[in-house]
Design a protein that fits this description.
Layout (H helix, E strand, L loop, with lengths): L3 E11 L5 E5 L17 E3 L2 E9 L2 E6 L7 E6 L1 H25 L3 E6 L4 E5 L6 H16 L4 E7 L18 E7 L3 E4 L14 E9 L3 E8 H22 L6 H36 L2 E3 L2 E8 L2 H14 L3 E6 L5 E6 L7 H11 L3 E5 L2 E5 L3 H16 L5
Parallel strand pairs: 15-16
Antiparallel strand pairs: 1-2, 1-6, 2-5, 3-4, 3-6, 4-5, 7-8, 8-13, 9-10, 10-11, 12-13, 14-15, 16-17, 17-19, 18-19
The chain binds zinc ion.
């Protein structure tokens, strides 16, 4: 495996995003997306390689910074190469187990920075099958089988038991053989021995295109890190609830259901309370020029919305309701027969302060990004409309 090599720059150009594209006279950088896997990263003369793309027969190395010399020193990031090789070799093992044990063929393979997927030509996948597949994969991993790479003539391919034979093969094809486990035609990067894959963990699966199953999985270091993360989440949750890990799900489910029931009951109580609040507001409204005006601040935004809706329905009043719980907001509205045009007043302020918000029927809601502008509008309402010192 060549990880450090010297090369000469044959061609260099900058694209419209200001990224430098370098073509070298030789390269060992694996290109992005080839064979479904992630490409290599590393440095060229100490500058970071951000991407490696294959365009026709050319391999281009993408850098954010320029490289001056013609002869350059290239270094491939071993840690990333190993991670990608773990995922890719793991995929061979996973695909072959699905095929041998459940006659499910791998149609495609995709690797991202977070996880990898294979699409299988079946919709029949259960928890039991997934567990059985994982255990069989683990058997192959601990058996420490060699992963051999060699080339054979295209003419030999049909007589060899390959898992899958693609069309349009070149004269010499690259074989990846996991001794006694899998025989594949593949151009990607792989580890030397199945033991280096460490672990294969299926995360989840979903139906795709109505007839296939997409299986999400992690291998090696990614699987261990995922285990560490999930263990820590579960451990912290179990500590918080003072309950054993095995009982966490049932407990959380039960408490979630109780919480939802409490919310539902609270909503019902709020609705009942609304009619009393509305009557009280009406009785204490300020009478001016033949209209009744109401100004009130609420601690609870939901309560404010209920009151606004009920006021419009029940009374011909002009009202200003506000809350500073969360982001400040004001609800301005009027009954059908109230004379003061509070809706135009609201729209003027909306425009002047460039506020978000909108209205339906006789209510306009204004949302404030900061408390200052909320306070200044409230001050104007008190001083110029309500003519009160404080409410
Ligand atoms: Zn491969």
């Amino acid at each position: 495996m060549t990880l450090k090599f010297k090369a000469n720059i044959l061609k260099k150009f900058v694209n419209n995003e200001g990224l430098f594209h370098l073509k070298l006279d030789r390269t060992y950088f694996y290109p992005d997306g080839a064979g479904g896997q992630l490409g290599d990263r590393g440095t060229i003369n100490g500058k970071r390689v951000l991407g490696v793309i294959k365009q026709g027969d050319e391999i281009l190395h993408i850098l954010a910074e320029d490289v001056k010399n013609k002869e350059v020193l290239c270094e491939i990031d071993l840690e990333r190469r190993f991670d990608v090789s773990q995922q890719h070799t793991g995929q061979h093992i996973l695909s072959t187990v699905f095929q041998k044990k459940f006659n499910a063929h791998t149609l495609s393979f995709h690797m991202s920075e977070e996880y990898s997927t294979i699409d299988l030509d079946t919709i029949y996948l259960t928890k039991e099958i997934a567990k059985e597949v994982e255990m069989k994969c683990f058997e192959y991993i601990i058996a420490a089988k060699d992963v051999k790479i060699y080339f054979v003539d295209k003419s030999k391919v049909s007589s060899m038991p390959f898992r899958k034979i693609p069309q349009n093969l070149p004269a010499k094809v690259r074989v990846v053989e996991i001794t006694g486990v899998d025989l594949s035609l593949c151009g990607g990067t792989h580890v030397k021995n199945t033991a280096e894959v460490g672990l294969i963990k299926i995360l989840k699966w979903e139906k795709v295109k109505g007839k296939n199953t997409r299986v999400y999985f992690l291998c090696g270091n990614r699987a261990i890190k995922d285990y560490q993360l999930k263990n820590s989440i579960l451990y912290n949750t179990s500590n918080m609830l003072s309950i054993g890990i095995k009982d966490v799900f049932e407990k959380v489910k039960r408490e979630h259901e109780e919480l939802m029931a409490t919310f539902k009951m609270m909503r019902r109580l709020k609705r009942e309370l609304v009619s009393y609040i509305v009557d009280e507001l009406y009785a204490n409204a300020i009478v001016k020029d033949g209209d009744r005006y109401i100004l009130r601040q609420f601690k609870d935004a939901e309560m404010m919305r209920y009151v606004a809706a009920e006021l419009v329905k029940k009374y011909d009043v002009v009202f200003f309701l506000g809350t500073t719980n969360g982001k400040p907001s004001l609800m301005l509205g009027k009954g059908d027969k109230a004379k003061y045009d509070v809706l135009s007043y609201a729209m003027n302020w909306k425009e002047r302060l460039a506020l978000r918000g909108g209205g339906k029927r006789n209510i306009i809601t204004l949302l404030f990004e900061e408390k200052g502008s909320f306070e200044s509008m409230l001050g104007d309402i008190k001083q110029n409309i309500m003519e009160v010192k404080d409410v």
